[in-house]
Amino acid sequence: MAHVPLRPIGRPRAAAVDDRTFAAHRDALAPRLETLRARREEVRAGWGDKYIGRVHDKGKLTARERIDLLRDDGDELFEVGTFVNYGERFGKLHSPAAGVVTAFARVEGRLCMVIANDNTVASGAWWPRTPEKIERAQQMALRLRVPTIYLVDCSGLFLPEQRRSFAGARGAGHIFAMNSLLSDAGVPQIAGVFGDCIAGGGYMPIISDRVYMTEQAYMVIAGAALLKGAKSEQITSLDIGGPEVHVHQSGCADVRVPDDRTLLTCLRREVARLPSSAAPYYRGDAAPMDPAFASSDLEGLLPLDRREGYDAHEVLARLCDASLFWEVLPDVGREMICGVGRVAGLYAGFVINRQGLLDDPDRPGEVRPGGTLYRDGIAKISAFSRACNDDGLPLIWLQDIAGFDIGYEAERRGLLAYGSSLIYTNTTNTTPMFTVLLRKASGAGYYAMAGLPYDPVVQLSTPMSRLSVMEGRTLAIATYNTKLDDDFAIETEDPDERAEIERGMAEVEARIEADMDPYVAAAQLDTDELVRPAELRPWLAALVEMAYQGAGSRRIKNHRIWSLHDLSVLVRRSVGRAEAGRGGDAAHEAAQDAPARRAGEAASGLAFVAPMSGRIYLRPSPDQPPFVERGQVLRAGEAVALLEVMKTFTRVTYGGEGLPAAATVTAVLVEDGDDVARGAPLFTLREASPADDGGDAGDAGREGEGA
To answer: What is the extent of the structural domain holding 166?
Structure first.
């Protein structure tokens, strides 16, 4: 098939989730978004106004001011590593962003990697993790083949902590190895030296293709202070290695300029000489288009509670151009969704975990939780990943993963081998991969879905992300297992021993919960950047564009000869499908809204019944009002309860066979937290009349209270 069968997916926000649930999700997330905003501002301030003033007093610009002048007007900056070293102290000092700004910025129409020493933090010194952060940025540039610009103003290693940044395979010296690898790969490197460039910092610009120096800049192996001590020479660092020496004598720099602003203009001119972006060529006639539904909706569609499900298609609908998507292999491994959409006019592959409760294909009539890797889903995304690599499609992994299926049946079916095949595939892929941790990123599932150890170009986290092997409560139980009974209750009757065990379990749980904070992961370079859900679309647009920016840098097949077409045809025939690529609303509605459609009549009259056995919750959270009250009018699609099955929460929505389009609740038959059987009545109903719309829904009560 020569055409890519993109189909509309998603629904307007009000149809995807009711107003109350959307507001509850958004309100729950709001404090975390405010924390993200405040901490970004804290990091961007460096060491504060005092040190910014010192930079300005020298007639120089700060690192962030330089970046703002370097990048194209009005274009967004995509910073990586903002929170490296966040919350850590080195003696009495802290190092915001590890003293270096690394970011993707558009310069003369080309997206570039910019690496700028923060001269408001210890004169741009290298702290523990500064080398690793710079090397990570260089690695991103190497994978994407994007021009790399160094804004150098570096006083060398922060010597009181030298043992943590000097030696080792990823110590400061590896920066220069990455300089060499970038040069060897033909990636343009351009350096501007604005001030100090001492010791190791002196090597960083030299391998660059073009080197500019201001009149205040110098590059030296040893500065004047060291020479005064070692040789008693009365000389300045400018005398030793200023532009007079390196531009006119040593040849280690190319051009001298009077000041920061002139140098930045020269850097822009150098980038303008480079080949233009190939992204417009690969777009063809497809112009970039916004999704049909606002990306900001994600902040109310995604529940903060990791146990609660949501419709993964609605996430894709807010990331893909025009909310168009080709779902590949929709009938196998339904716990995984994979397919192709355009982002900023360019094709990309997507893999996302489906959430909520799904029909178990091996046990008709039973369900199993989504967000878990089962055999068929693993095989499906392995094949899809290989096909994307073969076709040259950048691959976006949207993780919300609880882990692999476990147990005798999983082992008997060879889950370890299927998982290893997926890991092998992602490890050996050469197409650019980008990973987003939406909420959960647990255990080996995190590895298998292109987590950071498997070399995605960039891994993004949200303020909801939790990166862990095991939940805190689970680990506390495992740690004190010998002290607990089969129901995980403490066995001993001795009050002192019970108190000690309770305290120990609480400490384990609290420590693990703290370790799962996304800022902890970001501080130690276990994730590249924290972003708001609403920022995912512009981030992905920039990343996908960079994957297509360099013509001839990697294999990119035209869509007529994609391996994905072959895969789709073969699998469609094997499962007896009549039409390739069908998915979208019909497919995801079947999985997401099944509980509502199976609601019907109870023997006692018109009633809304439990779609399956589990524990019912009538409130979104204990401090919020109930979903449903007596006298309330229910309409199709409105949330009426949460149902917990196998530690997974599914939102139950009104509607289904035998139920009117609108119904008035006459009685609530269950208590919050009750265990219910499939088919058990939850509410009694009568068909709504026009007068009901004016009724007082606040006249709430349970059966027997004036019902």
So the answer is: 45-274
